[in-house]
């Protein structure tokens, strides 16, 4: 007999309708058994002697039959419902711990590797999890963790999907505070996508559903920082003149408001606000004022073990040094920043610093070195950069170098600031 003939035929899958019908019959049977047992028990208790014992025996037998038939199903159902919350909480706690490590001196590289391996699993977990009031906070914690990763990886599409998931869960569970957060998160995603009008609209929605919860001050601060970044994005698009100046001033006002709205001491928020104020000063061609913000930001980030914040501040210090016609100081800062970005596997920041260094090498005539740096930058960068392309062409000697360092100051800032990455 052949191996195929020896195998028993597979049982065809049971149609969904049949399973439903069996469930219905089982429910009715369970009810009938319960009723019969109750009736026999009453009759047996009213009788005496042997009849009473026979009635009790039949009742017990019916109970055993019921337990054998439906006990496993009831147990599995209870186990599934009971296990969901602890499992989701364990996932949320693990994700939260890695979020804290992300960009830090203690475990930044390990955190980046963990996210690279588990991001898809976390996202699928959120998509399959049914929102429930008992688990919504853990659901939101996983969303927070993924947001940190998507912002760091400049992935606005994934961030927008994350916002939609949180918004839907918040609506099911009646959590206005999480709906407020989801709208603000969508604003960040739309800004990263370049849709500034929709981003502004989403911030308005977040404002309209704002609550007076314990996170109200933090959410107000977040919206003010996000509005500042929107103004800076508009400044980047605007030609030199009144429109750009007005956008930069508006950004500074929003950042000042954000600093006032901080919910108590918040080192991470202070670092982020200082860095963005430095960007404002660079737009205003005030390199010294920018350095006044960046020096304490570097110190605070170093004391907190925040390598990402430290690298970003050093990168901008290089910008300020370049504006002050100090290329040696600028390249030194960019090399420091590139090293820190590489240490925590923050590829976009690392790629930007290599681009800065390659651009400086082109301006100094070191084309071989420039080409190597710029090609490495192109491999690391996830976002397109027009000026990177121009410098690559110049390094390959197919075009003249873009005029950056010798331009009038205002135009110089416009070129260089297109390469800034704002937290």
Describe the protein in words.
The chain has 423 residues and is mainly α. Among the domains are: 126 residues, Serine Threonine Protein Phosphatase 5, Tetratricopeptide repeat, CATH 1.25.40; 134 residues, Serine Threonine Protein Phosphatase 5, Tetratricopeptide repeat. Helices cover 79% and strands 0% of the residues. The longest helix has 53 residues. The protein is globular. The N terminus and C terminus are likely disordered.
List the helices and strands and how they pair.
Layout: H1 3-6, H2 16-46, H3 49-101, H4 108-128, H5 136-152, H6 156-173, H7 176-193, H8 196-208, H9 216-237, H10 242-260, H11 267-283, H12 287-304, H13 307-323, H14 327-343, H15 347-363, H16 367-380, H17 386-395, H18 409-417
Primary descriptors:
423 residues; mainly alpha; Serine Threonine Protein Phosphatase 5, Tetratricopeptide repeat; 18 helices; globular; disordered N terminus
Structural class: mainly alpha
DSSP summary: helix tally: 18
Q: What share of residues are in beta strands?
A: under 5%
Mean pLDDT across all amino acids: 80
* Low-pLDDT segments, ≥5 res: 1-41, 73-82, 404-423
CATH level-4 homologous superfamily of the domain at 290-423: Tetratricopeptide repeat domain
Percent helix range? over 70%
- The geometry reads as globular
Largest sheet: none
Number of strands: 0
Computed over alpha carbons, the radius of gyration is 31 Å
Could you name the CATH topology of the domain at 290-423?
Serine Threonine Protein Phosphatase 5, Tetratricopeptide repeat
Question: What CATH architecture of the domain at 290-423 would you give?
Answer: Alpha Horseshoe
What are the secondary-structure elements, in order, as H or E? Answer: HHHHHHHHHHHHHHHHHH
CATH class group of the domain at 290-423: Mainly Alpha
Span between termini: 71 Å
Organism: Kribbella kalugense
Keywords: Membrane, Transmembrane, Transmembrane helix
InterPro entries: TPR-like_helical_dom_sf
Transmembrane segments: 21-38, 50-70
């Amino acid at each position: 007999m052949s191996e195929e003939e020896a195998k028993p035929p597979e049982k065809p899958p049971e149609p969904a309708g049949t399973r439903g019908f069996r469930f219905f019959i089982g429910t009715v049977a369970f009810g009938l058994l319960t009723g019969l047992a109750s009736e026999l028990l009453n009759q047996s208790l009213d009788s005496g002697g042997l009849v009473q014992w026979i009635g009790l025996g039949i009742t017990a037998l019916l109970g055993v039959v019921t337990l054998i038939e439906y006990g496993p199903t009831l147990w599995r159902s209870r186990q599934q419902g009971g296990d969901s919350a602890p499992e989701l909480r364990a996932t949320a706690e693990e994700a939260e711990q890695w979020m804290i490590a992300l960009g830090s001196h203690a475990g930044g590289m390990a955190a980046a590797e963990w996210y690279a391996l588990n991001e898809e699993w976390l996202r699928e977990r959120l998509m399959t999890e049914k929102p429930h009031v008992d688990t919504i906070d853990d659901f939101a914690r996983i969303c927070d963790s993924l947001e940190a990763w998507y912002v760091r990886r400049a992935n606005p599409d994934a961030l927008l999907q994350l916002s939609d998931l949180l918004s839907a869960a918040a609506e099911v569970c009646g959590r206005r505070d999480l709906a407020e957060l989801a709208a603000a998160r969508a604003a960040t995603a739309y800004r990263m996508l370049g849709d500034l009008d929709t981003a502004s609209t989403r911030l308005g929605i977040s404002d309209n559903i704002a609550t007076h919860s314990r996170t109200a001050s933090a959410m107000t601060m977040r919206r003010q920082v996000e509005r500042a970044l929107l103004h800076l994005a508009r400044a980047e698009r605007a030609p030199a003149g009144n429109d750009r100046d007005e956008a930069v001033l508006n950004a500074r006002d929003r950042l000042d408001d954000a600093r006032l709205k901080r919910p108590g001491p918040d080192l991470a928020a202070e670092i982020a606000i200082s860095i963005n104020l430095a960007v404002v000063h660079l737009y205003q061609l005030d390199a010294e004022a920018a350095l006044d913000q960046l020096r304490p930001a570097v110190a605070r980030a170093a004391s907190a073990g925040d390598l990402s914040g430290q690298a970003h501040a050093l990168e901008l210090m290089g910008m300020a040094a370049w504006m002050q016609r100090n290329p040696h100081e600028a390249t030194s800062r960019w090399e420091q920043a590139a090293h820190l970005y590489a240490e925590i596997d923050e590829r976009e920041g690392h790629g930007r610093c290599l681009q800065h260094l390659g651009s400086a090498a082109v301006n100094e005539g070191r084309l071989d070195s420039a080409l190597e740096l710029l090609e490495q930058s192109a491999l690391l960068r996830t976002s397109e950069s027009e000026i990177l392309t121009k410098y690559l062409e110049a390094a390959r000697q197919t075009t003249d170098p873009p005029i950056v360092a010798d331009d009038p100051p205002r135009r110089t800032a416009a070129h260089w600031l297109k390469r800034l990455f704002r937290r």
